[in-house]
Amino acid sequence: MNKVTGVGGIFFKCENPEKLYSWYGKHLGIKQDVAGEGAMFKWRDVDDPNKSGYTVWSLFPKDTQYFGTSRSGFMINYRVENLDELIEELKKEGIEVLGKEDYDYGRFAWIMDPEGNRIELWEPPKK
Known about the structure:
Layout: E1 4-14, H1 17-28, E2 39-44, E3 52-61, E4 74-80, H2 83-92, E5 99-103, E6 106-112, E7 118-123
Parallel strand pairs: 1-3, 4-7
Antiparallel strand pairs: 1-4, 2-3, 5-6, 6-7
């Protein structure tokens, strides 16, 4: 089973998201998308150039609850191919799955690594 297929997103906490978005936009050219959900880095699949995807880069307020009990100021979102299969395998390996949710834009689950960093697993929608 192919577990992680790539990085779906990079999220981190900050004091003032709007101010930091402005800084990154001005100095590094990283601009928020129109929905204000962060920046979208679009790419093409190396094995199938007709298949496209994106990696999200997003800032969260320092007091966000989205990172759960993570002690870290960042969270990585990893792309996966079969979330249900991966969740079952992780459970067999003794990994606690902290939740699972489905949306139009994909399926998500969360786990913690041994150092208390929250990890988001994302299965993009099938097209």
